[in-house]
Amino acid sequence: MTGDPPSRSHGRLSIRPAAQPRSLMDEPLVQRGAWRAKVVTLFPEAFPGTLGLSLTGRALEMGLWALETIDLRAFGEGRHRTVDDTPAGGGPGMVLRADVVSRALAAAAAGTPPDRARWPVLYLSPRGRPFVQATARRLAAAEGVTLLCGRFEGVDERALEAHGVEEVSLGDFILTGGEIAAQALIDATVRLIPRVLGNQASAQEESFSRGLLEFPQYTRPAVWQGRAIPDILLSGNHAWIDAWRRERAERLTKERRPDLWRAYLAAQGRDPDEDQER
Fold first, then answer.
1. Which domain range does residue 231 map to?
2. Are residues 37 and 105 in the same domain?
3. Second label for 206, Cα 20 to 30 Å away, from 96, 157, 189, 224?
4. Residue 119 has pLDDT above 50, yes or no
5. Residue 271, number of CB atoms within 10 A of its CB
């Protein structure tokens, strides 16, 4: 194959799309036991993207996690490396071929445990189960993850079945491909890895960490455009502050996310029906 694209830099890690993905665990900059993400995509140049910035980018440089892109095109058929074909049964668009996707996923599986609990394999799909904070925590507790970025009308179902692929969705909307969704998923997961945030306690107070939306936040100046910071936050009484924050978090959750509010009540053994407005 001629005319290979130039290597891409993922932090300090240089990745060249190839049929045999290079193991980033061999990189001296990657710390032992670091969480890894392998991304199968038609657009490896889209990575690291925003993942190379701010806290995730710094953690990537420090070797707290590692990123590997696997170019799906390298596994394509024929001289033109074809990866898709028309859908069986007719219809618009194109579908990623089972044989092409299977070869890419098999290559991505090299050096990873077969246990899906230790190493999930995910396909970013609008028909998947919703990706929520609990999913991010589950992925962060694994050794790593393989992500398949779809394109066109989707992926031949047989490839997903053959490799035990789990489908996840970021929401009820459609993107042109899975790359943006993959970056969002990785970002949400990587920030839960110890030492990435610096102050891990901040992750414990965020939205969804306790089943509630986050309480309102304030900082200096104390008065801005006639709007003052609530007095209780300046009282120095941490018990009062904690109670105020919980009350505001509960109020926001109830108003904006009734689904979360009902789940929160149910988790506490409280009857959601008792909280209905009269």
1. 206-275
2. yes
3. 224
4. yes
5. 10
Backbone angles phi, psi at 155, to 5 degrees: -120, 140
41: how many CB neighbours lie within 10 A of its CB?
25
Share of the chain above pLDDT 70, in %: 85
Query: Mean pLDDT for the chain?
Result: 89
Extended strands (E) in 106-243: 121-130, 144-149, 166-169, 223-224, 227-228
Q: What digits encode the pLDDT tens for the residues 216-259?
A: 999 999 999 999 999 999 999 999 999 999 999 999 999 999 99
Whether 131 contacts 169, CB under 8 Å: yes
In a domain, 201, yes or no: no
What pLDDT sits at residue 29? 78
- How far, CA to CA in Å, does 75 sit from each of 45, 177, 218, 251? 17, 18, 51, 52
Q: Which residue has the tokens 């969804």?
A: 208
Degrees, nearest 5: CA angle 47-200-35: 40
Neighbours of 81 (CB within 10 A): 14
Please tell me whether residues 212 and 186 are part of one structural domain. Answer: no
Q: pTM of the full predicted structure?
A: 0.84
Q: What is the pLDDT of residue 198?
A: 76
Residues 76 and 110 reside in one and the same domain: yes
Spell out the alpha helix ranges (H) of the chain.
54-62, 98-108, 133-141, 157-162, 179-190, 238-256, 258-267
In whole angstroms, what separates CA 17 from the centre of its chain? 22
Query: In angstroms, rounded to a whole number, what is the distance separating the alpha carbons of residues 264 and 253?
Result: 9
